[in-house]
Design goal:
There is one protein chain. This protein is elongated. The chain has helices at about 10-20, 45-50, 60-70, 90-95, 130-140, 150-160, 160-175, 185-205, 210-220, 225-235, 235-255, and strands at about 1-5, 25-30, 40, 55, 80-85, 105, 115-125, 140-145. The longest helix is centred in the last third of the chain and has 20 residues, at about 185-205. Strands 3-2-1-4-5-6-7-8 form an 8-stranded mixed sheet, with helices on both faces. Strand 1 (about 1-5), helix 1 and strand 2 form a beta-alpha-beta unit. By secondary structure, it is an alpha/beta fold. It starts with a strand and ends with a helix. The protein binds 1,4-dihydronicotinamide adenine dinucleotide and (2S)-3,4-dihydro-2H-pyrrole-2-carboxylic acid. 1,4-dihydronicotinamide adenine dinucleotide (NAI) binds next to helix 1 and helix 3.
């Protein structure tokens, strides 16, 4: 199976890194300029298309139209399109390529590189074994869920952009600890242990306890956690944070109108 990337930035690299050990997949990419990566590079989209069984459109949303215009006159028989492009529907792609080409729309995140993405999947050809094979491949890259396209905007906000929002929180912790003047990467290492420890605590207990209960286990009556959480609730920080998720979702909706 040949996977060809159109555009080779953060997302394509994550897909490649996550799948490079799979024996029966060969990779190549097409971009404006060659990248520092050891897979074949084509400087012509026709060559990439002729190489690929699966064509990954891994460009920014503002660039997808130009790519689809270039793909439109090419013979795509036997090819399958995968698009992780935020805010661009299957119908948008069909407008250029028609309904005959199998199209898989996904919303992953960069943890694909470590087989830890959460990825939404939708397709125009759910009964086609080729689209099923893509779903199977996505399950190798983390958790994959079939989702009605209507859900993609919210999913993008929570699981596509989510890693950035979680990191923005970790950055707040990091900034607060700067006064310790710890050498080198020590602070990052400590924060990594904190987040991994928290994830493990969540993972080990989530089947038996709610998140509220897990928070309660850390909270002593009249203690430090209680003081922090009181502030959290009094100032409606959770509500404000919901605004972050809503802003991302709204942007995804907006992008789907262009
Ligand atoms: N970065 C992320 O965490 C996620 C990104 N996505 C989606 O994946 C897509 C790609 O995102 P990134 O990889 O982060 O972007 P990026 O900017 O890192 O990579 C885009 C690549 O496309 C190339 N490119 C642009 N125009 C081109 C053209 N006309 N012909 C050939 N190559 C062209 C650029 O040179 C670059 O290599 C976006 O549409 C985004 O919505 C989806 C989920 C997560
Ligand atoms: O920021 C974006 O629009 C893309 C979609 C999810 C993550 N990155």
């Amino acid at each position: 199976m040949n996977y060809g990337f159109i555009g080779f930035g953060n997302l394509a690299k994550a897909v490649y890194q996550g799948l490079k050990k799979v024996n029966n997949i060969q990779f190549a990419y097409f971009t404006r300029s060659k990248k520092e990566v050891s897979i074949p590079f084509f400087d012509c989209i026709e060559e990439l298309v002729s190489f690929a069984d699966v064509i990954w459109i891994t460009v920014k949303p503002q660039d997808i139209k130009g790519i689809l215009e270039k793909l439109q006159p090419l013979n795509l028989e036997g090819k399958l399109i995968v698009s992780p492009v935020a805010g661009k529907s299957i119908a948008f792609i069909e407008n250029y390529l028609g309904k005959e080409v199998p199209i898989v729309r996904i919303m992953p995140n960069l943890a694909m590189a470590y087989q830890k993405s959460v990825t939404a999947f939708a397709t125009n050809q759910p009964l086609n074994p080729a689209t099923d094979a893509i779903f199977e491949t996505l399950t190798r890259l983390g958790k994959a869920v079939k989702l009605n396209e209507k859900g993609f905007d919210l999913f993008t906000s929570v699981f596509g952009s989510g890693p950035a929002f979680i990191l923005a929180f970790i950055q707040i912790f990091k900034d607060k600890m700067k006064e310790f003047e710890l050498p080198g990467n020590v602070l990052d290492e400590l924060l990594l242990e904190l987040t991994q420890g928290t994830t493990l605590y969540f993972a080990e207990n989530q089947s038996s306890y709610s998140i509220e209960e897990l928070i309660r286990n850390i909270t002593s009556k009249g203690g430090t956690t209680q003081a922090g959480l009181d502030h959290f609730h009094r100032h409606k920080i959770g509500k404000h944070f919901e605004g972050v998720l809503d802003a991302a979702k709204n942007r995804s909706e907006e992008m789907s109108k262009n």
